[in-house]
Design a protein that fits this description.
By secondary structure, the protein is α/β, with parallel strands linked by helices. It has 13 helices and 21 strands. β6 and β7 form a beta hairpin. The structure holds ligand PMT. Ligand PMT binds next to α9, α11 and β16.
Amino acid sequence: MLKGKHIVLGITGGIAAYKSAYLLRLLIKAGAEVQVVMTPSAKEFITPVTLSALSGKPVVSEFFTANTGEWHSHVDLGLWADAMVIAPATASTIGKMANGVADNMLVTTYLSAKAPVFVAPAMDLDMMAHPSTCRNLQLLKSYGNHIIEPAVGELASHLVGKGRMEEPENIVKALEAFFAKQKTLSGKKVLVTAGPTYEKIDPVRFIGNYSSGKMGYAIAEEAASRGAEVTLVSGPVDIKVSGRGINVVKVESARQMLEACEAHFGDSDIAVMCAAVADYAPAHSSDKKIKREGHDAPVIELVKNPDIAKTLGGAKRPGQILVGFALETDHEETNAQGKLASKHLDMIVLNSLRDAGAGFGTDTNKVTIYTADGRALPFSMKSKAEVAGDILDTIETL
Ligand code: PMT
């Protein structure tokens, strides 16, 4: 299960750091490629030499190498990883992760990681039971991180209680179980649209909308992590994908998006239309910048753009699953149900701009999923990564 997987092993400054060497050995033995990232204080407990010898890679600890000035990119590391495991995770690092205190390479990598994150706390029993630690662990869970609960036993202080880092064998088992269950879409082709479309007025102006692409990219990442081969047709946004199993087709206008979708839909098992497609485009666009001086305010004539979801709905073959989104400001359920039927969708994901934290640009969303077989599934406010999980879990029931 771990063969070929890229794992970032984060090690923090606690007595249990000695167990990380064994954990690293087990991961390598299971076929994983491991990059160790240590906090400065972890080096007080275990040497980087031991860990680089076991991993076959220089350990990363600082933002750059002092004598050469070589920059270590936390963003690249975060994108490289299939999983990040922080073992042991001290109360201090857990607090920094929960609150975005990016003052070392490990926490910065964590904040850039798109992959699932596993946290194996290790600390004394009173620290473990402190409301601050409990709250921070709760926060990490709410971000979608996986907490590998510490065991009960004798601690470094010789007190007995909950706080021992889980045994390395069990941490490896947790990772294997995670990856085993992840491959539910293996062999499937998934088409996802994301972001806005820009409808050109002239070389410097366009009609667009506020979509950041976060929701659609999260769906593409989640489908790829479940083993699907993903084509992501993306409007103009500034997001990088992890690169594993995702073919990004960049487009600008609704017509270009339709063309790209039509080219890939026939081949797809599942299509999720998350893009905020502009419904109208200027009837004519100018090749030269429209000047203000010496002209009256121009009147821009608009024409209707094609409805991509409806076009694909009309071309759907038996067995294909087509999912749409509905972004509403009023009469949410009625409008969503109307779009589900009129666009021949199998499922629609409703999000409302009346919910603060939902919709455009946010890292969270609150959705209700309606299926063509009559189900209405309301979900609470969650990170867009978790919402993507709920959407794909529901698609898998269809
Ligand atoms: O990108 P983010 O900032 O993360 O924000 C996410 C989001 C709010 C954009 C996303 O969650 C969302 O709601 N996407 C759909 C937005 C939208 O255009 O909704 P709609 O109700 O107008 O469209 C209904 C469905 O038809 C959608 O699946 C849409 O992709 C599709 N459509 C709409 C118009 C059109 N011309 N062609 C289409 O295919």
